[in-house]
């Protein structure tokens, strides 16, 4: 276009007339015809050559050899040789192979069987753990609750002073098993976290002799992986009847000794508000009969094959004249209940 306008000017037209033919402003034509040279600009955050050289030279300083990168970073700012971020120092030195590559530890995959899968197969779990109480005089008393799942029945709470050893743990388990009916000893597996006393060779040996099976532990690399026993410990410490403080060791022992009776006779939300004692004795089905379906919800919601809940769309009953055919056709198909409401609606239609 610029060359055509120049030829038109040479043939006798004025610059304004030639630019008007292409609806181009004469000022823009002059800028296109005589462009200014573009100056090379350096980004404000670009690492300059002399800064890269200063970073590489700083690594060989006698006082920085073998030091972490943070020392090189601080050295550059204090001496004024370079002002860059720690990430830039790492990036520059990595490009010159002057730093060790970062290695990330990845947990090895194991064929771990979760506790929920064992209970689904019909096994009962004997859970145990330790928690401490401190008297007003600073004496530490450890409580060792022993719980049986899935009934969540608290068999026994052992205790010891100072710290939990393998002997203290196995004694608590033995006292708990003495209170367990004989028919519940079948398909019983011990389950605990990976604490030092729980994984002691002596503990494993004694419990295997008592139950005839190895101890099942929580997930690898996951401390406190016993949600049931941790919930029980929380109740043991913060129950509505728990004392605010303990003057003596006997006060702690008195409380933890009375707690099984309290816990086993309290309605539990996990059992639909039936007590653990009633669950253990097999009365749950009689005390908590079949849940009734909400008839209003049954008329409005349906479950899909994948378990999601389907419902009809709004705006389909009246005032349809202003709506387009496309909108009415799309509303006719229905929609899915929001994810946050799926659980509440499922309770209303448990058998549909």
Condensed summary:
With 352 residues, this protein is an alpha+beta fold. Helices cover 41% and strands 12% of the residues.
What does this structure look like?
The protein is α+β, with helices and mostly antiparallel strands and 352 residues long. It is 41% helix and 12% strand. It is built from 16 helices and nine strands. The strands form two sheets. Strands 1, 2, 3, 4, 5 and 6 form a six-stranded mixed β-sheet that branches. A three-stranded antiparallel β-sheet has the order 7-8-9. A hairpin with a 3-residue loop joins strand 3 (140-149) and strand 4 (153-161). Helix 8 packs parallel to helix 9 (201-211). The protein is flat. The chain starts with a helix and ends with a helix. The mean pLDDT is 87.
Mean pLDDT: 87
Radius of gyration: 38 Å
Class of secondary structure makeup: alpha+beta
| Structural shape | flat
For the termini, the CA-CA separation is 74 Å
Helices and strands, in order, run as: HHHHHHHEEEEHEHEHHHHHEEHEH
Residues in helices, as a percent range: 40-55%
Total helices: the number is 16
Would you report the number of β strands?
Answer: 9
Uncertain regions spanning at least 5 consecutive residues: none
Percent of residues in β-strands: 5-15%
Main β-sheet, in a few words?
6 strands, mixed
